[in-house]
Specification:
alpha+beta, 7-stranded mixed beta sheet, 36% helix, 5-stranded antiparallel beta sheet
Length: 270
């Protein structure tokens, strides 16, 4: 399970990120054709491929999937690890869209890798940092100025808009489309009051303990994720005229209200 902590005005959410569109079978017993943590794309197994080198990264995983679905855009098969009862999940997942950026591929690969490592009935949360993955590294100030200039008369809402022939604009528009591949849902039972969290953080830091350093790292990841999320919302607002609500809380959409040390907090993100 991939968890993205994110700081709101007075609380910290823990958000589960997963793919929207996939088929999952949780009732598998002995699986005859595949082993655990298999990734099969049009008959090719990632585990047996040259892409699975010793120092292979997340991009290598995504490149394997994409390069083996160039001519046949079929879904691929992914299996989890087995639990103590010998059961594992199998997933059938649609082929990913064309590459937009390395950072977005890292996000996609992170989700796929987590599904490969998951164990039925034994989910473990893995903390995700959008900044560390480089998800918004390509959204620069000069590009946002270009978007503003290009949308003075009308917003860009159609992927066939002729303005998207300009590479920089296409990458930014495609970023929003790519992020829409994922479901981001607040885990209600894990939402924390910010003041209570900071009192706990302060207590642990006074002892300079390993636990204190982990809590501090978690807080800064939540802060960074909030800034990255606001940047995405800002881009969507000035480009399409619509705020991109990536995170859901039940049936409600989540808009990060304000962020400590935040940059993306006005002129279009609200």
């Amino acid at each position: 399970m991939i968890i993205m902590p994110i700081l709101d005005k007075d609380k910290i959410y823990n958000v589960e990120i997963k793919l929207k569109d996939y088929f999952e079978d949780q009732n598998l017993g002995v699986f005859e054709k595949h082993y655990e943590s298999d990734l099969i794309v049009n008959g090719q197994n990632y585990n047996d491929s040259s892409y699975n080198a010793k120092n292979a990264n997340l991009n290598s995983l995504v490149n394997f999937i994409r390069n083996n679905t160039i001519y046949m855009r079929s879904s691929y098969v992914l299996t989890s690890r087995r639990n103590e009862q010998g059961k594992m999940y199998t997933y059938r997942i649609p082929a990913p869209p064309r590459k937009v950026t390395e950072g977005l591929d890292c996000l996609y690969g992170n989700i796929i890798q987590d599904m490969k490592k998951s164990i039925p009935q034994n989910e473990k949360g893995r903390i995700l940092s959008l900044k560390k993955l480089g998800v918004t590294d390509h959204i620069m100030e000069k590009d946002l100025k270009l978007v503003r200039k290009s949308t003075e008369s009308s917003y860009i809402t159609d992927k066939n808009d002729p303005r998207l022939k300009e590479k920089e604009l296409y990458l930014l528009f495609a970023t929003i489309e790519f992020l829409d591949l994922f479901d981001c849902t607040v885990l209600e039972d894990s939402t924390m009051d910010l003041k209570e969290f900071q009192s706990i953080q302060k207590a642990f830091l006074e002892f300079n303990s390993e636990e204190g350093r982990k809590i501090n790292k978690y807080y800064h990841t939540a802060l960074e994720n909030a800034n990255e999320y606001r940047k995405i919302q800002f881009l969507s607002k000035i480009m399409t005229g619509e705020t991109f609500y990536w995170i859901k809380r039940g049936e409600s959409k989540v808009k990060i209200k304000s962020i400590e040390d935040g940059k993306w907090t006005k002129n279009g993100a609200d």
